Amino acid sequence: MKKIIIFIPYLICGGAQRVxxxxxxxxxxxxFDLTLIVVDKEGLFSFQISEEVQFIELEKDRVLTxxxxxxxxxxxxxxxxxxxxxxxxxxIAVMAAKLARVKSKIIVTEHSNYLAGKKKNKIxxxxxxxxxKMTYKLTDKIVTVSDGVAKSLKLAGFExxxxxxxxIYNPIVTTELFEKKNNEVKHSWxxxxxxxxxxxxxxxxxxxxxxxxxxxxxxxxxxVNNLKLIVLGEGKKRKELEKLISELELNDDIELIxxxxxxxxxxxxxxxxxxxxxxxxxxxxxxxxxxxxxPVISTDCPYGPNEIIDNxxxxxxxxxxxxxxxxxxxxxxxxxxxxxxxxxxxxxKRAKDFKVRKITNKYKNLFDEIx
Length: 371
Hints:
- The protein has 14 helices and 13 strands.
- It has about 375 residues and is α/β, with parallel strands linked by helices.
- The radius of gyration is 21 Å and the shape is globular.
- About 45% of the residues are buried.
C-alpha cells in the first residue's frame, strides 16, 4: 500500500479544493493510505472528507509558518509521495520535505495560469519567482491541469531538464454531480417554460469578466424574447456589477444569487451556460455544465477552454472581452434548436473524459512511474 500525503492550505470553495476532494473520493483506499494536511480546515469541503482519510489540521495563521510542523509530520510518516497543491503552498511543501530529509517523491500541482492575475510588487514577484523556480527544480513531477498552464510556466522561465511537466486534467464528473443535478430548483425563471435562462457560475472577480457578459446579455435580450440571466457566485465585484445592471436597466432580468451549494441543479435546467473569463487555469465549470446537459459558450481565454471545447461541435468559443460576438453566439444557440441539441449531446459525451475514475487512474499511473 502506497502512503500518500496531500497538502493544500485551505478547504474553502474553489477549483483546486474541489479537485483534491474528488481525488480523495476516487483513490482506492485499499491501494492508498491517504493523509490530507491543511493549515486551516474551515470551509464547506471539510465536511466531505471520508473517515478513511487521515485528516490533519496544522492550526497555523499562515502557510509560511507551517513549514516546521509540516516537516515534522513528513519525518514521522515518511510517505512514498508528497502531493501538494497551489504554488505558494508548493514552495512550503518542498522546503518541509527537504528539512525532514525524507526520501519521498514530491509532486506539485499548478492549477492556474501563472502569467495572469494580480500584479505583484516587482521585488516581491521576483523573490516569489526565484523561490518557485528553486523549489520546483527539487520536485519529481510538476503536474499542470492544462497544457496551457504548463505553457504559462515555460513562458515565465520554468524551462530546462530539471522541470518535469505532466498535464493531467481535473477530475470533475462524479456520481454526486449526477445526483445533485436532478434536485429541484425553486426559482420562478427556472420553472417557467416561456423563459429562456442563461446560467453563469463563478466568483464575482476580475478574471470572470462579468461586465462583458452583462453587456452581451443586454444586446442578446433585444433579439431573444423572455431572456434572463442568473449568476451563481459571490465576490468583491458585486457592487460594481449591481451598478452596471442598474445602468443598463436590467434589474428585472439579471439576478446575482450568490454562492449556492448545488449549481448543478441550475445548470441542468438552464437553456445555456456562458463563461466570459479573461483567463482560467482549466475551466471546471465548462465540464460541469456539459455533464449537466447544458450547452456551453466560453471565451477562448488562456488557458483551458480550447482544450475542452471543439468549437462548433461540443461548445462554442468566442474572443475574450468581445460582448458583440458573445451576444451573437447566445442568439445563435437560443434560436437554432438543432444546433443547441447537437452541442448539448456532444457536450455530454465530452464530459465523460473527465470522470473521476478515469483521472484518478492517470494519477495512479503517475505514482507507479515515479516510485
